[in-house]
Amino acid sequence: MLRRLLSRQPRTVRMCGAARSSPRAVWASLPWPIRYAALVLATVLLLPVLLTALYRVVPPPGTPLMVIRALQGDGAARDWVALDTLPEAMPLAVLAAEDNRFCQHFGFDWVAIGDAIDEARAGERLRGASTISMQLTRNLFLWPGGGWPRKALEALWTPAVELLLGKRRIIELYLNVVETGRGTFGVEAAARRYYRKGAAALSTREAAAIAAILPNPREWSPERGYGAERVPVLLRRMRNIAPLATCVTR
């Protein structure tokens, strides 16, 4: 009888250990506020991923920044335009202005990030190294401004944007949601505001001028001041990066 008890003991211990380590048992043992908070957090983190998959085929209805600008009284004028209808100079100009290595990276430009860190260590002002993919993530799902929480979420969701959308859809969405002036979003609305014509009819210089104001669209003008001064620089850069921009050109 003693031998039978001893032979059964290891099996009982293993079963108890398995029960203790079961994820379902651990989950059931948590207080309901913790379970509820975990479910809310998981939903918040996964929702942008699901929306990203949807935006592969459906234009986004708006962005948080559009809502903010509308509440501020600026309005939020925009008109959707397909990438295939735009002149090649338009996406090329945006790459020249915002993300030269867009076609070579997977959401994060580690070369630009490394350069920014080196400059900061040398005592220079810390500059941003955001890619177009990161900026699109921020535009679609997050709020303007800095702060580590926003940067962390941006870094978390950018790989999903790259994986689920692809380069051409990323640049198409970006060209349609990026702020291009006070109360103006997207290159179509910008073309009508600044040049009284659709984006499909923009010249190479006009495309470069719209791209030139993207770092500060609420204050800069494409035809005067610092925005206009950037245009010749962007035109030269567009010629230089054209061989590297085949992911967005036809």
Structure characterization notes:
- This protein has helices spanning 2-21, 23-29, 32-55, 64-71, 89-98, 110-121, 132-141, 148-165, 167-177, 186-195, 204-212, 225-241; strands at 179-181, 184-185.
- It is mainly α.
- It has a single domain, classed as Biosynthetic peptidoglycan transglycosylase-like (Penicillin binding protein transpeptidase fold), CATH 1.10.3810.
- The N and C termini lie far apart (82 Å).
- The mean pLDDT is 87.
Compact summary:
The chain is an all-alpha fold.
What descriptive keywords fit this protein?
250 residues; mainly alpha; Penicillin binding protein transpeptidase fold
What is the topological layout?
Elements: H1 2-21, H2 23-29, H3 32-55, H4 64-71, H5 89-98, H6 110-121, H7 132-141, H8 148-165, H9 167-177, E1 179-181, E2 184-185, H10 186-195, H11 204-212, H12 225-241
Antiparallel strand pairs: 1-2
Helix pairs in contact: 3-8, 5-11, 5-12, 7-8, 7-9, 11-12
Write the CATH fold name.
Penicillin binding protein transpeptidase fold
Low-confidence parts, pLDDT < 50 over ≥5 residues? none
How far apart lie the N and C ends?
Answer: 82 Å
Give the overall silhouette: globular
Number of strands: 2
Name of the top-level CATH class:
Mainly Alpha
Order the strands across the largest sheet as they lie in space.
1-2
* Fourth-level CATH superfamily: Biosynthetic peptidoglycan transglycosylase-like
- The portion of residues assigned to helices is 55-70%
Q: Count the helices. How many? A: 12
The chain-level structural class is: mainly alpha
